[in-house]
Amino acid sequence: MMHAKKNAQQPPEFVVVGRVVRPHGVRGALVVHALSPIIRSVTPGSQIFVGNPPSKIEILEFRPHRDRYLMTLPGCTTREQADRYRGAEINLRFDEVEPLPDGEYYYWQILGLEVSTEEGKSLGQVVQILETGANDVYIVRDADGKDQLLPAIKQVIKEIDLDGGRLLVELLPGLLND
């Protein structure tokens, strides 16, 4: 039996893995943009959850297509039916996804962590994560409400302690807003 750690964030029921971009062709296929590497675990027969509240759908076909994926759903056989899914998020049940490799974390695990330097200086709490393309950037808010931007790179982020609810960082020259 797993017990929740004092400061650890609890996992969400669903994790968003993709978004329907548009219909593909005239037979109801959908173009899906990946929002998480977890999408690679989706296969024909996978149970996905779409909409709000999420409704369960079993995928008929799912395959890579250029830099995206093509998906076919039951009962979706025309372009008009497929167009109803435009913009819909594709969710998987969190308890059914494969664990992330060591050193990779979900955003919900990082948000709320207390940030301090290796010397013990408190910088605040991670309140938001920006996706910049090259690397994520953590927005850390201090007790006075001032925000600090920290790049999520190994030269800066030295230790992520989920059980302790903290993030240890090394501030490179020019990083601190003084």
What's the short story on this structure?
With 178 residues, the protein is mainly beta. The protein is 5% helix and 42% strand.
Topology:
Blueprint: E1 14-24, E2 29-34, E3 47-50, E4 55-58, E5 61-65, E6 68-72, H1 79-83, E7 89-93, H2 107-110, E8 114-117, E9 122-131, E10 136-141, E11 147-151, E12 157-161, E13 166-169
Parallel strand pairs: 8-13
Antiparallel strand pairs: 1-2, 1-7, 2-6, 3-4, 3-7, 5-6, 8-9, 9-10, 10-11, 12-13
Rg result: 20 Å
CATH superfamily of the largest domain: RimM
Strand content: 35-45%
Q: What is the N-to-C order of secondary-structure elements (H for helix, E for strand)?
A: EEEEEEHEHEEEEEE
Give the domain tally: 2
Specify the overall morphology.
elongated
CATH architecture annotation of the largest domain: Beta Barrel
What is the terminal-to-terminal distance? 46 Å
Structural class, by secondary structure, is mainly beta
The CATH topology of the largest domain: Elongation Factor Tu (Ef-tu), domain 3
Count of distinct strands: 13
Helix percentage: under 10%
Flag low-confidence runs: 1-8
